[in-house]
C-alpha cells in the first residue's frame, strides 16, 4: 500500500525527490574546470540552497538541459 501511495505522489508531482540533482563537488570547491553545460552534475548559483550535496531542480529546466 505504501508503494502505491509513493507512486501516486510521484505521478501527481508532490514528491520532489526525483527532481533532486547532485551538486558537483569540484564546483563547490571552485575547482570545476567544466562549464555547467558540459558537467553532468549541477552547478547551482550562490543563492540556491544546497542540502546534503543536492539541489531540487525545476522539471522544465531539466527537460531543456537534457534536450541539448
From TrEMBL:
The keyword Metal-binding is annotated on this UniProt entry: yes
InterPro entries (UniProt xref): Znf-CCCH_Muscleblind-like, Znf_CCCH
Location of the C3H1-type domain: 18-46
Zinc finger (C3H1-type): 18-46
Keyword tags: Metal-binding, Repeat, Zinc, Zinc-finger
Record family assignment: Belongs to the muscleblind family.
PANTHER family, sorted: MUSCLEBLIND-LIKE PROTEIN (PTHR12675), PROTEIN MUSCLEBLIND (PTHR12675:SF12)
Name listed for the protein in its UniProt record: C3H1-type domain-containing protein
Amino acid at each position: 500500500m505504501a508503494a502505491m501511495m509513493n507512486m501516486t505522489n510521484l505521478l501527481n508531482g508532490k514528491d520532489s525527490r526525483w527532481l533532486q540533482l547532485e551538486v558537483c563537488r569540484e564546483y563547490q570547491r571552485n575547482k570545476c574546470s567544466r562549464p555547467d553545460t558540459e558537467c553532468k552534475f549541477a552547478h547551482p548559483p550562490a543563492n540556491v540552497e544546497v542540502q546534503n550535496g543536492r539541489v531540487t531542480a525545476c522539471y522544465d529546466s531539466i527537460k531543456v538541459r537534457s534536450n541539448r
